[in-house]
Write a structure and sequence with these properties.
By secondary structure, the chain is mostly helical. Helix content is about 50%, strand content about 0%.
Length: about 50
């Protein structure tokens, strides 16, 4: 039986938080694109 190459999620809470951050950043970038600001904007995401 083949296993899913992504494996089993060991920390579903962390996965959920990362998904939320990804979706939020996607909305920000989509808005910048909608406003025509992506060509003149540097987006820096920093985390520790």
């Amino acid at each position: 039986k083949k296993k899913d190459p992504r494996g089993e999620q060991r920390n579903p809470i962390m996965a959920s938080m990362l998904k939320s951050v990804d979706e939020s950043l996607g909305r920000v970038l989509a808005k910048l694109d909608e406003l025509g600001l992506t060509r003149n904007t540097i987006f820096i995401f920093y985390s520790d």
